[in-house]
Amino acid sequence: MARYFNGKEIELLAPAGTFEIFKAVIESKCDAVYFGGPVLNMRMMRKGYNLSHEEIIEAVSISHKLDKKVYVTVNNLFSEEDVEEAREYLKFLDGARPDALIVQDMAVLELIREMELTVPVHASVMMNVHNLEMIHALKELGVSRVVTSREMDLQTAKLLGSRSGVELEYFIHGDMCSVHGANCYFSSQVFGMSSNRGKCMKPCRWDYRIKRDGYVFPAEYPLAVKDMFMYEHLPELIESGITSFKIEGRMRDQEFMVNLANSYGDAIDRYIDDPLGFDRTVDSKELYKNRKRDFSTAYAFGKPGLTNINRRYEGTGKFYSTGKVFSTPTAERELSEARVMQLRERMAEDKRSKQTKPELAVRVNNMEQARLVLEMGVESLYIPGDVFEPDRPFTKQDIKELGAIKGRTKLYLGMPRMMTELHFDQYDHLLNGEKLPIDGLMITNLGAIRRYRGTGYPMIGDANLNVYNHLSAGLYTGLGLTKLTVSPEMTLEHFASFISRSDLPLEVVVHGTPALMYMEHDLFENTEVMEPIGEEDNQFVSNDVLVLKTDKGENPVYRDQYGRCHLLFAKELCYLPMLDEMNGLGIASFRIEGATYSTDELRTIIAAYQAALNGPKLGDDLLGGLKPVYAGYTLGSLQFN
Fold it and tell me: Known PANTHER family for this protein (predicted)?
C-alpha cells in the first residue's frame, strides 16, 4: 500500500505496543507500523508490552504481505552492558528484515558499520535533529530518514527536506514533551531513571507553582503540554513535503489506536482524491470527544506559548496510557558521607596505573566571571553560546579582550544547544573571518561538528551530546572531537564501566547547577499574563529569578538570549570529595558550571577545587569547608547504582 500526492509518497505511520495490537493496527488505514522489541527501546516500563523475537519475524511477514512497512525502535541510549547485548540483537534484526530501525544512540551506527549490517536506519526524535547540517551528517553516517525535532515548524521542515533530499518524519498526533528531545535530565537526577533510556518519571506533568519577583502565580501544570493534533491540517503537512506522518502511542490501547489510524488514513485519502473539496472537520468532533488531553498544533505553525499547556484534567500528572499517576514530586537527594564512601570505593576498583594531572574548566555567563577565571589561572574557560538573562551575549570585542589576557588558560567559544540556520550564518561569519584568539570550540550538536571541523579550531563535545558508551565516544572522536563531556545521566556502575573502557580524553561536570530541562516553552510568559495569587520570597535565589515550586523544593529557571528556558537543579551538584578517585579513573578535565554564581561565590568554589587538585587529600571534612550557595549539595545521577 502506498499513497501519493503530486508524485510524492505520503506515509501514515501508526504505533503498536503489543503483537495483538499490531495485528489490528496493521489492518487499519495506515501505511506502516512501528513497535519495540524485547530490549533496548524507550517503552520498556510497562509489563506485557513490546514484541518478542518470534513476533517481530511474524509482524514483518504480515506487513509485507499487505504491502506495508514495519519499523523497530532501538531508541535507547546504550550502557556498556547494552552495547554487548545490542550486537546480538542487531544481528537478529538484520536477518528479520524490518524496513528500518529507529535509533537514538550513535553506537548503533557504529555497530552497523562494524558488523557490516544492511538494515536501514532512521534517526529517532531523541536525536533532536533541528538543522540542515545535522541531516547531512546523519546521511553521511548511513541514515535514510530523520524524525524531526518536536519543536520544528512546518516551514523549516519544508526547507530542510528540500535542501537535504532526506525523508522527514513528523509527529502529527499524541503525547508530546515540553523539553527538547534528549535534553531532559530531571528524571535521571532525581530518580536515577533516565528519560533517554526509556524510564522517564514525567516531571513535566507534576503540579508546580511559579514564583517570581516575590509573587506566586497560579500555573498548576506549567510544563504539561497538550496532545499533538494535526488532523485538520493535513493539507499543510502534505504541502510541507514531509514523507511520514507519525502518530504517537505505543502504550495506547487497541481500539483507540485503530480508530485514530482509520480517521487519519481516511482524511488523507479524501484529500488525495479531492484536494479542493476536502473537508477538514469530518471526524474532528469524534477525535476531540475521545481525546486523552486537550489538543494543540504545538510548534507546527510557530511558538504556541501558553496555548500549548494542558488544563483539561485536574490530575494532568496522570500517565493516560494506564490511567494511573505516573510520578509525584520528589526532592533531589542530599549528598551523604556514606554514599561518597561507596563511590570512592567503587571508582578505586578501576584505578589506572597511568594518570595525568587533570585540568579544571569553568563555564561562565559574563565578563566579570570570565576575568575572574583568568585571574585564578584556571586551565580552561568556556564562553557560553546560551547566556542567561539579564547578562548579554559575549561580543567579538569581549572575546578579543579575553584572548589578550588569557595567558596559559585555554579559551573556548561555545554554541547554543539548538542551532538554527540563522545561528549557523552568524557563527560562519564570525569563525570564517579574522582569526579569533580562542583555543577551540565547544560543540553542542552533530551538525556543528560537520560545519566547523575544517575551520582550524579544535572542537570539544558538550554534555548534551549524551555520550554514554565507548562506541559513541569513538564515533564522535572520529568525526573530529578532541575531548568529550560524559553524559550527565550516568549512574555509578554505568559511569565506572564507561570510563574504564575509554582511552579518550573525557570531561566530567563536577560542580554547579547544570540544566535539567532545556525548552522552547517560555515559562516567564506565565508571570506576564497571569495575575498573582499570593506573595512569597524565593528560598535560595533572589526574587528576580523565576522558580518552579513544589512542596519538595524550588528549581530556578533562567531564560537565555534566544528566549529558551533552562530549568536547573534546586541543589548544587558537588563531586569535590571524589576528585582523586575520578582522576584515578583517568578523567582528563573537571568542569564547574559557574553561570549562576556571583563573582565572590565562584571565587570560593574555584579555590576549593584548585586546592583539592593541587594539594593533599581532603581531611575529615569531605568538602574542605566549602558551603552550598543554594539548597544543599547533591550527587545527581551518581547517587544511584
Answer: 23S RRNA 5-HYDROXYCYTIDINE C2501 SYNTHASE, PEPTIDASE U32 FAMILY
